[in-house]
Design brief:
The complex is a heterodimer of chains A (about 325) and B (about 270).
Chain A: H1 2-9, H2 13-16, E1 28-38, H3 52-57, E2 59-70, E3 75-80, H4 86-93, E4 101-106, E5 109-110, H5 115-121, E6 122-125, H6 137-147, H7 152-165, H8 182-195, E7 200-204, H9 212-229, E8 232-237, H10 240-246, E9 249-254, E10 257-262, H11 264-275, H12 283-291, H13 298-304, H14 307-320
Parallel strand pairs in A: 3-8, 3-9, 6-7, 7-8
Antiparallel strand pairs in A: 1-2, 1-4, 4-5, 9-10
Chain B: H1 2-24, H2 26-44, H3 53-87, H4 90-94, H5 100-127, H6 139-160, H7 162-166, H8 171-185, H9 197-205, H10 207-221, H11 228-262
Helix pairs in contact in B: 1-5, 2-3, 2-5, 3-5, 3-6, 3-8, 3-10, 5-6, 6-10, 6-11, 10-11
Classes of the chains: A alpha/beta (about 325), B mainly alpha (about 270).
């Protein structure tokens, strides 16, 4: 009952008033999206003519021809190693980056052309809890609530309810954020996104740095948001257990490309079949299988001591390259 | 109507946030106030002991007050980006469902109120050290010129705020260069007539020139707002404000789009 009360209250219809949403439309459509970044040339290099190879070296292919559809009320996980393009994809969905090619839409609204509308439908939690650290959680969240058209008195009640629900003591709510641990700050960041009850919630490694209990709290809250508020959730994570617990489907991204997608069971079966294992494989095995830079052989396992260590060594080598 | 309430709420959000930050960084606020007071006094003392000391002291005092006001307001406006970069909140503000105009209006309103209060405190304290004859002072004209000048300062500030938006690490320092150039060409401590002809051209563009001239006419020569002399400073300020604010917002819009294309909104560039 308490859960029902909290979730119903967090719905803020004034923000989405006037936006027509067709419930049969896909919540998120990412269509053949690419994003390249170009590193600036060092000043001294300006006096030399740049060769084609040098110019190519400065280009970082963050996201390449990604297509993904997320249905309404779906929780989809994006799994990938560091630097694989997950956060770039989330930033493009958040209207913070403009794709070079392709289109992204949220409930039919284009993230570039209809950015103002999309911003009313979404919210995001990033891996860094970005706040005015001298201000308290209450001051930070009231500021966020006002930006999302929520009256301060309503927001205050919700902030206390959400933060205490996430395990933050009442006496910490009005103390400066800089005195809180990283995990606690991350919880406040999660509360900020939940506060506005977005129709599409983008979670970019939201539980990184949280203790196991806090992780579970956040995961329950995410599920609640979907069950009661009909939210659609896109989550990037390194945590395979989290992906299994939360996601209806997962997409594995490597070097800017989606290399596999499906339900957890589908991916596990596919990898088990490919590897010819009789025993069931884990999500870790699936992730390693699709993102490994080098096919790991028995010789590699003997050389590095274990399969995981061999994987890490090749990952480090890939990053160096 | 709902949209208006939303934008009004968001405008207040920026005002309230900046007020909260000022309260939390109170020690810094005091440091800057003391620094500005000492700086203003050390400049104003130059006028003591010279012939017609009352005129020179008041002339310099107006210069220090306007410079403080310009600095505080200008910093407040460019802090639209600087502060958010520093705190790492820039992406959250830029993905919030508000117009960039609302974002700027909220931040600029606070910058004006903050600048006016800061300057008033400085002026009262510094003026108390000198026995000034203010019998020919028209205070209404002085306040009018300062408030009118704010409009242009904001336009210039918004345009300058693109520097920290585009240059993640060096943009903040670049805004200081713009500010110091305004100090040089606007006749803060001297008449612009002493500047070389090529520099005087820039003084015509700087709104601070007209604010200073107008304030001096009001406080030194008792010129009322409706006088022909004050009007000669009023219309360039109005024109400057009418041009600089839309141009500033427009240029900022182009810079924001460029930042979104190249990934410069990200905290660490």
């Amino acid at each position: 009952m308490a859960i029902q009360h909290l979730a119903t209250e967090t719905i803020d219809s004034s923000l989405t008033k006037g936006i027509s949403i067709d419930p049969t439309t896909d919540a998120v459509v990412i269509d053949n999206v690419s994003k390249l970044f170009t590193k600036p040339r060092p000043l001294r290099a300006w006096f030399h003519r740049e060769s084609k190879e040098e110019a190519e070296k400065r280009v970082i292919r963050a996201v390449e021809a990604i297509s993904l559809t997320v249905k309404r009320r779906e929780i989809v996980g994006i799994l990938g190693a560091n630097g694989s393009g997950k956060s770039t994809l989330i930033r493009m969905l958040s209207t913070l980056l403009i794709p070079d090619t392709g289109h992204i839409s949220v409930f039919g609204y284009d993230v570039i052309r209809d950015a103002a509308t999309v911003q009313r439908l979404i919210n995001r939690v990033s891996v860094e809890a970005s706040f005015f650290k001298k201000l308290s959680p209450m001051e930070n969240l009231i500021y966020a609530a006002r930006l999302y058209n929520m009256p301060a008195d309503v927001a205050r009640r919700k902030i206390v309810a959400i933060l205490t629900r996430l395990g933050i003591k009442k006496d910490r709510i009005n103390a400066p954020l800089e005195n809180m641990s990283r995990g606690m700050q991350q919880k406040v960041a999660i509360a900020r996104a939940f506060l506005t009850s977005p129709i599409v919630l983008l979670l970019d490694e939201p539980t990184t740095g949280l203790d196991p209990r806090s992780k579970l709290d956040v995961q329950h809250f995410v599920q609640e948001l979907r069950e009661i508020h009909d939210a659609t959730i896109l989550i990037t994570t390194h945590d395979m257990e989290e992906a299994e617990a939360l996601c209806d489907r997962v997409a594995i991204i490597d070097q800017g490309r989606i290399v596999a997608q499906g339900t957890v069971d589908e991916l596990k079966s596919a990898v088990q079949e490919r590897l010819g294992h009789i025993a069931p494989v884990t999500m870790n095995d699936v992730f390693m299988h699709y993102t490994v830079a080098h096919l790991i052989t028995e010789a590699d396992i003997q050389r590095y001591g274990s399969w995981e260590k061999a994987f890490e060594a090749y990952e480090a080598q890939k990053e160096d390259e | 109507m709902s949209s208006l309430i939303h934008q009004g709420r968001a405008t207040y959000a920026f005002f309230e946030r900046n007020w909260n930050l000022t309260r939390r960084y109170l020690a810094w606020e005091i440091v800057w106030l003391v620094y500005n007071i000492v700086n203003a006094m050390s400049i104003t003392f130059i006028g003591v002991g010279v012939p017609d000391a009352n005129y020179v002291v008041l002339y310099l005092l107006i210069g220090t007050a306007v410079w403080t006001y310009l600095s505080v307001t200008f910093d407040g406006v460019t802090d639209i980006i600087n502060m958010e970069r520093w705190e790492g909140t820039i992406e959250y503000t830029f993905m919030a469902p508000i117009s960039r105009f609302t974002h700027m209006v909220g931040s600029c309103l606070y910058a004006i109120v903050h600048g006016l209060l800061f300057t008033l405190v400085q002026l009262i304290i510094v003026a108390s050290f000198f026995h000034l004859d203010l019998s020919h002072a028209n205070y209404l004209t002085a306040v009018f010129m300062l408030v009118l000048g704010s409009i242009s300062f904001i336009g210039f500030g918004i345009a300058t705020a693109i520097l920290p938006l585009l240059f993640t690490e060096k943009g903040m320092q670049m805004t200081l260069i713009v500010k110091s150039l305004l100090l040089l060409v606007s006749g803060v401590y001297y008449s612009v007539s002493v500047l070389p002809a090529w520099m005087r051209v820039f003084s015509y563009i700087s709104p601070a020139t007209y604010v200073l001239e107008g304030m001096r006419a009001g406080l030194l020569h008792d010129q009322p707002i409706w006088s022909a002399e004050i009007w000669s400073y009023t219309w360039p300020l109005l024109l400057s404000g009418v041009i600089s604010i839309p141009v500033g917002v427009f240029v900022f819009g182009i810079a924001e789009r460029y930042a979104k294309r190249t990934g410069r909104l990200k905290r660490n560039g």
